[in-house]
Design a protein that fits this description.
The protein is of the alpha/beta class. The chain has eleven helices and 14 strands. The chain folds into two domains: about 15-160 and about 305-335, Murein tetrapeptidase LD-carboxypeptidase, N-terminal domain (Rossmann fold), CATH 3.40.50; about 160-295, LD-carboxypeptidase A C-terminal domain-like (Glucose Oxidase, domain 1), CATH 3.50.30. The two termini are about 25 Å apart.
């Protein structure tokens, strides 16, 4: 299993980066304020709102921003403004050696799949498939997803179990989880960050892809040998297609697995849409397709010293996202979120 990042503590510094598409500023601000209200200091660079075409600034800006947070030992977690597209354009520029030196929680999904794959593979650190900041500012569902993620990163979320999954192929297995967005997994083939699912439970989700395109990407994974030696499969949300096609998606994965006697489930509430449950990648879990459950081991390292509590603004001045003072931090420390 991979090294676990330190658990978040009240007052810790949480950085926000935008390595992909531009985002809605108002939703982003509300999402950052939500994170601060839960007891953390929140910081982002002044250039995060820049635009270069559809991107949140040019490649150089986005890579430099993320590297600055990877290299900062005070930062205990990195969240992301949104996905979209653009992370694969900068991933080769990122300093994963710094992440090994200064381990911290990294959480995102969709276009951030490539970053999660790289962090687990190159830094040997568990990473988190989970919600992003702008979505947390778009409504109650997104806010709830973010609160659950932060509770998980603080080691407060319990139980770490997911129930009510639909068994598609029976069995029970204990293994680490990996995966992400289907398009990004397919596009990782042949790169230094290629998905490695041998001996692991593979999680997959997708949004807005026609069934024939899903079929093509599943076949690409199959032909690349991704399903060879896989220990289990968890299907998340496949948004933007009808109920009948969702059932057909499950059939495509079963077909690609062939006669492999590994547990397969669907109905995991993660990916595009809500709820968007967080999953730790690189952490051991027990998948029981007969019971319809997925239960994780602890996914953060407890016992770290208390973090600093001085407020931080984003670079360049302006309104600070604060932790809410001692009372707010104490209240946040008492919060518990059920993750199931």
């Amino acid at each position: 299993m991979l090294k676990l990042p330190p658990a978040l503590r009240p007052g810790d510094l949480v950085a926000v980066a935008a390595p992909a598409s531009a985002f809605d500023r108002e939703a982003f601000t509300r999402g950052a304020e939500l994170v601060a209200s839960l007891g953390y200091r929140v910081s982002w660079r002044a250039g995060i709102t820049e635009r270069s075409g559809s991107f949140a600034g040019d490649d150089q800006r986005r890579a430099a921003e993320l590297n600055s947070w990877l290299r900062d030992p005070e930062v205990k977690a990195i969240l992301f403004a949104r996905g979209g597209y653009g992370t694969s354009r900068i991933v080769e520029r990122l300093d994963f050696a710094a992440l090994r030196r200064h381990p911290k929680a990294i959480a995102g999904f969709s276009d951030l799949t490539v970053l999660l794959l790289a962090a687990t593979r190159l830094a040997g650190l568990a990473a988190f498939h989970g919600p992003m900041v702008a979505a947390a500012g778009e409504g109650a569902d997104g806010a709830r997803d973010m609160a659950r993620l932060l509770a998980l990163l603080a080691g407060k979320a319990g139980p770490r179990g997911h129930r009510g999954l639909r068994g598609l192929r029976p069995g029970r297995v204990r293994a680490a989880v990996t995966g992400g967005n289907l398009s990004l997994l397919a596009h990782s083939i042949g790169t230094p960050f290629q998905i490695e699912a041998r001996g692991r439970i593979l999680f997959v989700e997708e949004v807005g892809e026609a069934l024939y395109r899903v079929d093509r990407m599943v076949r690409q994974l199959q032909l690349a040998g991704v399903f060879r030696g896989v220990s289990g499969v968890v299907l998340g949300r496949f948004s933007g297609i009808g109920p009948g096609e969702r059932r057909a998606v499950a059939g495509l994965f079963l077909e690609a697995l062939g006669s492999r006697a590994v547990p397969v489930v669907s109905g995991f509430h993660a990916g595009h849409g809500s709820p968007n449950r967080a999953l730790p990648f690189g952490v051991a879990a027990t998948l029981d397709a007969d019971a319809g459950t997925l239960v994780f081991d602890p996914c953060v390292a407890l016992g770290r010293d208390q973090g600093s509590t001085s407020p931080v603004t984003h670079e360049g001045g302006g309104k600070a996202a604060r932790s809410g003072g001692p009372r707010g931090r104490a209240a946040a420390a008492r919060r518990r979120s059920t993750w199931e």
